[in-house]
Amino acid sequence: MERLDAIEDLQAVGLDAPLSYNPGGGDRPAERSLRTALTEAGGTSSSVMPPTMTRMAYLTLRGISLARLLEHTLGLGPSRIVEVHPTSALVLGGAEADDVDALKIERAARRRIVTWLNQEGGLRGLPDGIADSDHLVAAASVAMAMLRWRRGSPAFEHPADPPIHPHTVIA
Q: Is pTM, for the whole model, over 0.90?
């Protein structure tokens, strides 16, 4: 539990994983709203997948398990654990949609996103080296989305709807 102690004093935790699902499968209201927001912003909505989709099911199970661990081990309530969609946060936050689309395959696109996060995204001092990994860039995007959410200005927010969907979804 030593590693969990490092996050005990945080005001909120953002997780890059679905933290709930519809009992019958398919899209949650959050996915439908997020796809609409992305389309209206000129982005692609193909990265927004239902939590029970084959490619997402294991990530969803890990996300739910981690959220419960944080809730029960550290006493964080569901309102302090937020589901974040990092690529949507980039697009809706103002990053170049073409760079976000190329995030997983082009280091040059990741470098431009890191520069954008440092200059426009509200983060300061991100090392260029994080552009070596799409996972690190996504983590920085989660940090940006959480910062904006804590300041009351997320690019996208879908409120929690307990008991089925106990966590807020942001981008």
A: yes
